[in-house]
Recover the amino acids of this structure.
């Protein structure tokens, strides 16, 4: 097969530019690769030229899987940064293989009257290379997607301070929340008992309410319920002559705020877990 393969590869390298142009024309109008339709031709052609001109190295390597990883990790990263969907990047590769085979393999076979058995072996080797390429591209897309998720959720993950059960961050969150609640109790007592007013100091309560919902999601609503009960109880004890209306509204808004944030965090967690499943 080696003599036949050498002739085939020589032919591919000689005609790489021409095959790349035919492939680019196809991929830029194919209904299965719409993302390529808006990319200028001079940006598309080098993708195929790069592959065709390195075909020899990939064809004769002793470790085609590792070699494919090196070549197609770059291909995958470039397509990912161009926001080409995975299915289109893979189909573009299928078209690249099709153009290579139709243009080079068959022409070489029939023009040189190469033995059909050798031609079949060459075809099998080519298919194997592209199979490895598709695996590597899919793997790289998953890796890049996971990295993007981590980067985009970076701020939220920092606020969540996630850790394993019993970890130091868990203790820190519990301690910090305890401090917030103690301050809330002291501030409520001071304003209601000492100042005798229901002045709107409760805006500060939204800090522990939101943090609790981010950290513990549905369980974090207990903090909102506690703070709502706190201002209502304190009002009943120290502000008997002041209408309850304002504090009742505040207590309700506390619970609503905690519930909304908790539901948002639940939804975000489910989406994140789904992406993790798809990218592992």
């Amino acid at each position: 097969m080696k003599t036949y393969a050498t002739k085939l590869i020589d032919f591919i390298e000689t005609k790489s530019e021409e095959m790349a142009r035919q492939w680019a024309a196809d991929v830029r109008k194919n209904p299965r690769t719409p993302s390529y339709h808006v990319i200028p031709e001079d940006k598309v052609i080098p993708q195929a030229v790069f592959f065709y001109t390195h075909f020899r190295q990939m064809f004769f390597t002793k470790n085609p899987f590792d070699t494919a990883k090196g070549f197609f990790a770059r291909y995958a990263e470039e397509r990912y940064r161009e926001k080409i969907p995975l299915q289109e990047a893979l189909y573009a590769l299928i078209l690249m293989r099709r153009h290579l085979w139709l243009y080079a393999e068959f022409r070489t076979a029939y023009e040189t009257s190469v033995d059909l058995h050798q031609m079949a072996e060459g075809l099998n080797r080519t298919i194997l290379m592209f199979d490895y390429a598709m695996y590597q591209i899919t793997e790289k897309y998953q890796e890049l997607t996971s990295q993007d998720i981590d980067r985009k959720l970076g701020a939220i993950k920092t606020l969540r301070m996630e850790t394993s059960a019993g970890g130091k961050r868990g203790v820190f969150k519990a301690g910090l929340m305890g401090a917030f609640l103690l301050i809330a109790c002291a501030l409520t007592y001071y304003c209601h008992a000492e100042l005798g007013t229901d002045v709107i100091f409760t805006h500060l309560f939204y800090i522990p309410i939101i943090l609790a919902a981010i950290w513990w999601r549905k369980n974090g609503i207990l903090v909102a319920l506690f703070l709502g009960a706190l201002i209502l109880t304190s009002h009943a004890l120290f502000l008997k002559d002041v209408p309850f209306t304002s504090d009742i509204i505040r207590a309700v808004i506390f619970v609503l705020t905690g519930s909304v944030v908790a539901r948002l965090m639940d939804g975000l967690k489910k989406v994140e877990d789904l992406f993790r499943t798809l990218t592992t």
